[in-house]
Design a protein that fits this description.
The protein is of the alpha+beta class. The chain contains three helices and eight strands. The chain has a five-stranded mixed β-barrel. A two-stranded antiparallel ribbon has the order 5-8.
Length: 139
Amino acid sequence: MRLWPVIALLAGAMAVAGERIPGPIPARVLSVIDGDTLLVRARIWLGQEVETRVRMAGVDAPELAGRCGIERDKARQARAFAIAAIGGGPVVLREIQYGKYAGRVVARVLTADGADLARLLIQRELGHAYQGGKRQGWC
């Protein structure tokens, strides 16, 4: 087995892993998966769009399949709030980078009026400030 192609592939993947796109990248929300995750169609170039999951940077929202009723209730509220805040309008993605899970990116999500959706969730106590590491509990 020749290792050179494998080494070249890994080196390229490592360079891409640290890559960051400052934005703005316009996007249309296809669905709100939960309080801090969206499915979007983003316009990345002339005539080119990509569909991807976006995890909101700076916030951790409760999980719909959470450990207790309080978390699940807060999760439904966070999702409903995100839907209302987006209001069917476009969003703008900024500070885009790869997430730790394949197929998902992490980005700042700004509503059509320029509000940071993560900050709005935190202000309404529907999300905790999150910069990585151990997450706070909801129960």
